Structure formats: structure tokens, C-alpha cells
Amino acid sequence: MATNKKQHLDCVLKSHNIENNETLITNYRAKRDEVKNDLLEKYKGKIYSPFNSGSYKKKTAVNIKFDIDLVIPFKKNGADTLETIFTEIFNYFDQDYRKKDSTLIGVNKQKVSIGLEFMVDGQILYLDIVPGREVNDYEKDGDLNLYVNDTMGLIQKASCIKSNIQKQIEKIRDNSEARDGIKLLKVWKRRNNINVKSFFLELISIKAIEDHKGTVPNDNWNKLKYILEFIRDNVETVSLVDPGNSNNVVSDALEDFEKKNISENIKWMLQDIENNDSSIERHFPKNTEFPCEESNDKYIVSPNRKPEKLNNNDFG
Description:
Number of strands: 11
Order of helices and strands: HHEHEHEEEHEEHHHHEEHHEE
Number of helices: 11
Structural class: alpha+beta
Shape: globular
Mean pLDDT: 87
């Protein structure tokens, strides 16, 4: 029997809804607040209030290996060099914090963040700490310089990039037309181990929608197909500008071979689905932990699962 691609993707979205796992979300909220309060105490007078960013705030989160991003805005006069700040926060968690919190099982230096892994109730919670330093007047403009710990395409290691994370959040959050397509691409990325940043997928999906507003189909399959075709045809040449700083070209963070791999991967996937509708179930699988049930031609999460109604403002 042929797979109804639209109904399947409806179920994929519902089964990957972050509200499905109430216990995990509650644990995330508690651990995030602990870390935030500890950082406020450690850097009292040197930082502005840490704030949440990332997929929750942007309303693009899915419930597989998601993390919470916590941005730490340092005051100009309260911080040393960006590299020193980055290294100091890494050492704090890797040495001091491990002694006080036995649930901390991993501390990793990442591109512009320090990745923390906590084991809580048998599940790993991922929390990314993003340190930044005030550029001019953070309370007025929100601009921060971020330290680049590792080379990202044309962006060199040990450099810094100026951005405005609040503007990034607003750009993604306010593009509701692209939201479901972004979530489905994140499912594809996670389930198929595709090495591409979620921020890149968010921006290129929005670019696809904005460039052809009014001609993009409404149903989930045809809209997703439209976005995938745009990425396939344009990923190697498109310029994606950081909403927080027009001088940052986010697409420069990928090497040419990485862009080509994405294009080829999507080309093969679209051909595979065209040849066999049921292939969509492999490329965009449901989250079997939260099975869907069919009711009146629409999929719903099993009523045995009672998702908590969450406020995206609570997360990063």
C-alpha cells in the first residue's frame, strides 16, 4: 500500500513534538535554572542576566537529542579576552562543577559554546553555554562578540564574530510559514546523522519561502518538497546572512564539499521517495516512543501520553 506522504509527515511532526515528554522537559527546566543561578553567582556584577536561545525560543524544537542554549552576556569591563572567557567557563564546569554536581557527565568545547551533558533520571540532558562579550551598549542594542573555538568553513579558529542572538531568535520564530518544514529537516538531520547546523537549515528554509512567497504549497509534503528542491539546487551558491549582523555570512561556515554533500544527499532522497512513496518513512521516521493514532484522517499522539502545555519563553 502506498504511503500517504502528507499524513505520514503530520504524524512525524506530532510524534516529535517537544511537549510529548513532560518528565524530560521538567528536568531540563530545573537543570537549566540551576546552571543559570550558579553562573549569576559566580560572575556577579560581571555579566548581564543569562538568557535562553536556540530551538525552543525559535519554536523549531523537536524531541530528539535537543539541547537548551544559555547565552552568558559579559559586560565590557567585566571580562578579559573572549578566549580567556571561553577557557575559564570550560574549566569551571570541567573541574569545579563536576565536584558539586555528580550528574554532570560531559564537558566539551564546541564551535562557539561549551557543551554540557547531565545524566538525570536515566536520560542525558544537553545544555550549551554560549559566552559573549558586550560590543557597545548591550542593554540598548543586544550586540555581542562570540569566540570561535574551532574553524567553521571560512571563519577562522580563535577569531570572533559579532552577532545579535535576540535578532536571530526573532527572525526564525516569526517565520511561521517555514516552521514545520524546519522541524521536519531537523528530524531528517538527527535521524540520518546529517552533519549540518540547525541554524543553517532554519535560514535556508526561510530563504526558500521568502524568495517565492505566494507560490509555496500549504500541505506539509509539498511544502517540504519545495524546500528540499530549493536546498538541492541552491545550497552551493546561496548567501545566507546572519539576522544579527549583516556582515556575517552564515553559509560561509560550511566548506564547499559539505554543501555539495548536502545537495547530493537531498537529490538522492527525493529520487528515492519519487520511486517509492514508502521511502519517506525511512528518511523522515516517526518517533516510535510517542506513537500516533489515526482519527478522522488526522494523526494524533496516543492519548496515553499527556503532554504538558509549555511556554516557549521558558526555554533556550
